[in-house]
Design goal:
Leucine-rich repeat, LRR (right-handed beta-alpha superhelix), elongated, LRR_domain-containing, leucine-rich repeat, LRR_R13L4/SHOC2-like, alpha/beta, Disease resistance R13L4/SHOC-2-like LRR domain-containing protein
Length: about 290
Amino acid sequence: HCETKNIYLLKKTISYNEKGIQEEKNFSNSRGEEKKRKEKKRKEKPNIKVEQAKVLEELKKLIGKPIPQVDKIEWPTTLGVKVEGDNIVGLSLNNQWLMILPEQITDLKSLQEFYLSGNRFIYGLPESIGDFKSLKKLSLSKNQLTTLPESIGNLFSLIELNLFKNQLSSLPESIGALKSLQTLDLSHCNFWTLPESIGGLKSLKKLRLIRNRFSSLPESISNLNSLQELALRYNQLTELPEFISNLKSLENLDLENNKLSSLPESLGDLKSLKDLNLRHNELTILP
């Protein structure tokens, strides 16, 4: 087919010399089509570093299909690789029923976004997950995880960590080392407390603890000075501590569906608060 195509292009070139502008248009179109074909081929087989290409090959064996190149990875992308220059910077392996990750995965040194939702990491994650020094977004929702490795605290560049809908009841102390973390979603798990070190998350803006087992607010969150959103709906909170007033940046506090019968006076000290949801509690009086 390639030979025929080349002859076709050659004929168009010759025709252009004979017939002028009309044929030039056709030739341009053919070149445009050729460019599109090359672009499609590039997306199917991106030009990346050898060791990173090997990782894609290993993943292809694990999931039974190639991983297409995409311009950006966003929901609902289930399978995709994002390339910048000759580096893989984004990888989505959502809903692939993975139970393990290949050892070579840490060769993706430039990885910034890693989406692993909807898999089956029932044996946990490898310690090597902490080797992704450039990682900014990590999604591990819906994975039946019961523990996280201590090495999670080595992801110093991490901005978003999504652990929604797992079997987690505790976090490693090392979580407090994530100084860049801005969003932490621990909703739909089995948490009833949080480690003291959580107060070290100085950049944290959003903390989602929806549908857990909290009966009281862990004092460790009182140091989250940057926190703007705290979601605690569907827990078993019976009271709010006075230290809630420490959260000076708090704008959104969601306490729907708890067992609160009263609120502390200090709640009035939250000068930045814009949205307070107290529906479906047992309140009889407000401060």
